[in-house]
Amino acid sequence: IRSPQCRWLMAEECVLAGFGQAVIGPPGSGKSTYVRAMHALLTSMGRKACIINLDPAGEEEEPGAAVSLRELLGLEEVMSELRLGPNGALLYCMEYLQTNLDWLQSRLQSMRGTYFLFDCPGQVELYTHHPALPSILRRLGEWGLRLCAVHLVDSHYCTDPAKFISVLCTSLSTMLHVELPHVNILSKMDLIEQYGRLAFNMDYYTEVMDLSYLVDHLTSDPFFRRHRRLHEKLAEVIEDYGLVTFIPLSIKDEQSLQKVLSTVDKASGFCYGDQQRSLGNLMSVAVGADFHFASYPNDFF
Ligand SMILES: Nc1nc2c(ncn2[C@@H]2O[C@H](COP(=O)(O)OP(=O)(O)O)[C@@H](O)[C@H]2O)c(=O)[nH]1
Ligand SMILES: [Mg+2]
């Protein structure tokens, strides 16, 4: 067992030693599309990966998923049997999974050593305040899985300063709630030009630079002028934490997907590989912009 986290745990607890991504974000932000594209990229690089579908919603089984929560229970049956609406039923499904994690453990254990891509449901409260999902992810960590949260947000929100401030607030609370190494992504960048003119250049949105410009721009609209103080305070909270930045992603652009993967590999610690490396090597990987995937084969596991 190479994971340092595992050394703190009982040997029998550490059943999954490996790496993976928890792909989270609002509905329609592109999570399932991302998971499939990332799976294809990893496979083309010779990295053994599999998709774990934790979304009980949707009409069809996720194509290519090795494990699906729908094997345990489906949203439709929960809605009809417990007379719940779609949102309540989805929260019930996650709470049910939280109390039946032995099912997930036994399903994942047979794939030990694989890189896991968790396709999570698109219910925002799961990421901002509901306890079930962080608890499930924490348990996966206790089993030795070193996960990185990949949070997708539709780049459409950049076209509206008020919505972009909301996205920054949601992204920050998600980072604080989920408590994992975290990478925020602006998805569907290929559509950004169709979405309309941006008030600032793209770097301003991805780097989350001085937000006073955004507040000024927003409050130049008479409708928002009377809420200036509120927006200033929200911007202050986001800047004080200084945690939120984004990586742009267009699913058809393999280079942007590679960039996401290299950032995720740094965040999760995958790129550091063998823990026996010298401190110098670790530092050079940490600061080096160019991480050569090809030189890090599957022998990490
Ligand atoms: N143009 C474009 N469409 C995308 C991209 N990523 C996802 N989509 C589309 O966005 C829609 C929602 O994606 P999906 O993966 O189902 O979102 P989920 O609900 O978060 O799982 C689908 O029609 C996808 O084809 C992208 O990078 N570019
Ligand atoms: Mg989906």
Automatic annotation (TrEMBL):
GO terms for cellular component: cytoplasm. SUPFAM superfamilies: P-loop containing nucleoside triphosphate hydrolases. InterPro entries: Gpn, Gpn2, P-loop_NTPase. The keyword DNA-binding does not apply. Keywords: GTP-binding, Hydrolase, Nucleotide-binding. It holds the Pfam family ATP_bind_1. The keyword GTP-binding applies. It comes from the Eukaryota. GO terms for molecular function: GTP binding; GTPase activity. Small GTPase required for proper localization of RNA polymerase II and III (RNAPII and RNAPIII). May act at an RNAP assembly step prior to nuclear import. PANTHER family: GPN-LOOP GTPASE 2, XPA-BINDING PROTEIN 1-RELATED. Belongs to the GPN-loop GTPase family. Heterodimers with GPN1 or GPN3. Binds to RNA polymerase II (RNAPII). This is GPN-loop GTPase 2. It comes from Leptobrachium leishanense. The gene is GPN2.
